[in-house]
């Protein structure tokens, strides 16, 4: 049924004029043609075709004020002040960075403790070496008096002074030996941690193994070389997977270490003999033990000083000794003919 037509089989009512349908336009015909075509994509997956347009907004001419061009001022020479200025850098060569209490900057790092401990350890070790040499001299003098007493009578005052000298030097050397030993052990633990912090790796062995390898008799003879060799390996910055190879200085220190412990054990065991010749031999053994202790102290001080210089090379004393006093044979620097007007002072 079309618009303007009655139902089928019924005539037009009286006075009804049938309306003619207008012909379809070209746009309607094009729409019907598109509707009759099959849909290439589902409705919800239709590609969106958006026009590629870019809107750019620019202010109109004269919207912004023009920048004033300042003419450069002529150079009038260096600045001058009526009084000395209060600003400037402090008259200091070096100072530690400011630390804030309660933060991580306030904590003292192991690398900062190593130089301080090193100076104390070196001084104490050399003082102990001098005291050990004095104790060895007292023992040698006693042995000379024993040899002289076999053929002639000795002065009572000389013998009394010799006994007092031996007793005083021996007691001081035995008691004060604990101080350099404790300081050296403390420096060793701090240096191990500092070397581990610099390399970024953990120490090769725990602290209890280090204490056993240094303090326990008999076990410390071979283990001391491993502990110090590992420290030298870490201080030199060698690869962690590589096997430590001790230097000649470390091997010399280990030789003095073993010799001192062996002589100490032999001299202690020799004192249990009661005959006169054994007592005379014990005097020689004690003198040699004191000399070996002095050599061990000197070698330890040299090793501590070398490792500290490798860990913390920026020492204040070294900086003071490396001042530039005069330059010879260098070409003259190029001087600027004129200073640009806009250059910063």
Notes on the structure:
With 345 residues, this protein is an all-alpha fold. It is 53% helix and 0% strand. The protein has nine helices and no strands. Helix 2 (110-149) packs antiparallel against helix 4, helix 4 (178-199) packs across helix 6 and helix 7 runs antiparallel to helix 8. The model has no long low-confidence stretch (mean pLDDT 78).
Strands, total number: 0
Number of helices: 9
Low-confidence stretches: none
Percent helix, as a range, is: 40-55%
Summarize the structure.
The protein is mainly alpha-helical and 345 residues long. 53% of the residues lie in helices and 0% in strands.
Quick tags:
9 helices; mainly alpha; single chain; about 0% strand; about 350 residues
Strands, helices and their partners?
Layout: H1 26-36, H2 110-149, H3 156-176, H4 178-199, H5 207-215, H6 220-235, H7 248-270, H8 276-311, H9 316-321
Helix pairs in contact: 2-3, 2-4, 2-8, 4-6, 4-8, 5-6, 6-7, 7-8
């Amino acid at each position: 049924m079309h618009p303007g037509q009655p139902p089928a089989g019924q005539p037009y009512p009286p006075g009804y004029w049938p309306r003619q349908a207008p012909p379809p336009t070209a746009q309607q015909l094009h729409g019907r043609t598109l509707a009759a075509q099959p849909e290439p994509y589902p409705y919800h997956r239709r590609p969106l075709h958006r026009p590629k347009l870019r809107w750019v907004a620019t202010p109109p001419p004269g919207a912004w004020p023009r920048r004033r061009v300042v003419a450069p001022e002529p150079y009038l020479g260096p600045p001058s002040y009526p009084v000395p200025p209060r600003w400037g850098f402090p008259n200091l060569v070096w100072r530690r960075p400011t630390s804030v209490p309660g933060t991580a900057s306030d904590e003292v790092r192991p690398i900062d403790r190593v130089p301080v401990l090193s100076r104390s350890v070196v001084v104490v070790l050399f003082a102990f070496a001098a005291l050990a040499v004095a104790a060895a001299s007292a023992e040698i003098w006693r042995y000379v008096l024993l040899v002289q007493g076999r053929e002639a009578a000795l002065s009572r005052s000389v013998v009394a002074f010799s006994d007092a000298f031996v007793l005083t030097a021996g007691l001081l050397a035995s008691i004060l030996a604990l101080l350099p030993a404790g300081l050296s052990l403390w420096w060793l633990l701090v240096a191990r941690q500092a070397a581990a912090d610099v390399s970024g790796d953990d120490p090769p062995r725990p602290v209890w193994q280090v204490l056993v390898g240094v303090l326990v008799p008999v076990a410390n003879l071979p283990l001391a070389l491993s502990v110090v060799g590992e420290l030298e390996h870490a201080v030199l910055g060698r690869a962690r997977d590589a096997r430590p190879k001790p230097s000649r200085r470390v091997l010399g220190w280990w030789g003095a270490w073993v010799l001192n412990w062996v002589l100490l054990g032999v001299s202690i065991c020799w004192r249990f003999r009661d005959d006169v010749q054994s007592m005379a031999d014990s005097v020689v053994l004690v003198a040699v033990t004191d000399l070996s202790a002095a050599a061990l102290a000197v070698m330890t001080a040299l090793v501590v000083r070398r490792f500290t210089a490798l860990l913390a090379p920026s020492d204040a004393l070294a900086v003071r000794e490396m001042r530039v006093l005069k330059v010879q044979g260098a070409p003259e620097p190029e001087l600027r003919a004129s200073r640009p007007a806009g250059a910063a002072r």
